[in-house]
Automatic annotation (TrEMBL):
It comes from the Bacteria. The keyword Hydrolase applies. Pfam families: FGase (PF05013). One of its GO terms (molecular function) is hydrolase activity. InterPro entries: N-FG_amidohydro, UCP029730. Keywords: Hydrolase. This is N-formylglutamate amidohydrolase.
Length: 243
């Protein structure tokens, strides 16, 4: 089953009390009535979305019955993984790229059109699903264009704020695959964890906030491989969290 609105897209039907997936930056779609003033290549790069995560989420929903709630608009239109009052909610620059169409943007208009419908629908979906575990899926670039000398060696990272138990299990399980795993890397969930702070920690829902390096999920074969790994780690973590 696929459902779609302007702000969100869903794949699959949640198993009540099971595992679900959310992904804020799964799309680089820009509405036809909006002009950001950047090139197609820039929009297709990591500044426009989290490369690869939509395809991984689709595979997880279809092959592993982990239903997904996905953002359906580019993070450059509005960043669904920020608080409403965050200074970069509608970025005017990203990794050295100026976003002219966001200068003087109608902040409240975009909140009403995209941000609030996305999060309101997610909360209703989660309440109905009563999940035992949420997978929050993102990807990161191996190096920022604005700081090319600073390489990011982790293949996958786990982010968390106050709830670290699930992340600790997942880090160990990913390492069993022979991966280089980041503990609150490439950035800390204690500083940036907006969606899981709101929909996970605020409700006592266990979660895994997973960051995959995007050069590892750019083709179908690697997307399938990572979907299988993430599903396995999520299911094993879910079992380990049960009393």
């Amino acid at each position: 089953m696929i459902e779609e609105t302007e702000s969100w897209r869903r794949i699959g039907t949640p198993v009540r009390g099971g595992i679900v997936l959310v992904s804020d930056h799964a799309s680089n779609r820009v509405p036809d009535d909006m002009e950001l003033g950047i090139t197609r290549a820039q929009l297709d790069d990591h500044i426009g979305w989290d490369i690869g995560v939509g395809a991984v989420a689709d595979r997880m929903a279809r092959r592993h019955q982990i239903a997904a709630h996905l953002g359906n608009v580019s993070r450059l239109v509005i960043d669904l993984h920020r608080e409403e009052d965050h200074s970069r909610l509608i970025p005017q620059e990203s990794d050295g790229v100026l976003i002219p169409g966001n200068i003087g943007a109608d902040r409240e208009g975009r909140l009403k059109r995209f941000y609030r419908p996305y999060h309101d629908a997610m909360e209703e979906w989660l309440e109905d699903a009563a999940p035992s575990l949420i997978v929050s899926l993102h990807s990161f670039t191996p190096a920022m264009a604005s700081d090319p000398g600073k390489k990011r060696p982790w293949q996958v990272g786990l982010l968390y704020n106050e709830q670290g138990d699930a992340a600790a299990h997942a880090m160990r399980l990913f390492r069993e695959y022979g991966l280089t795993v980041g503990d609150n890397e490439p950035y800390s969930g204690k500083q940036l964890n907006a969606t899981m702070n709101r929909h996970g920690e605020a409700h006592g829902r266990p979660y895994l906030a997973i960051e995959v390096r995007n050069d590892l999920i750019r083709n179908e074969r690697e997307q399938a491989r990572w979907a299988d790994m993430i599903a396995d780690v999520a299911k094993r973590t879910d079992e380990l969290l049960k009393p």
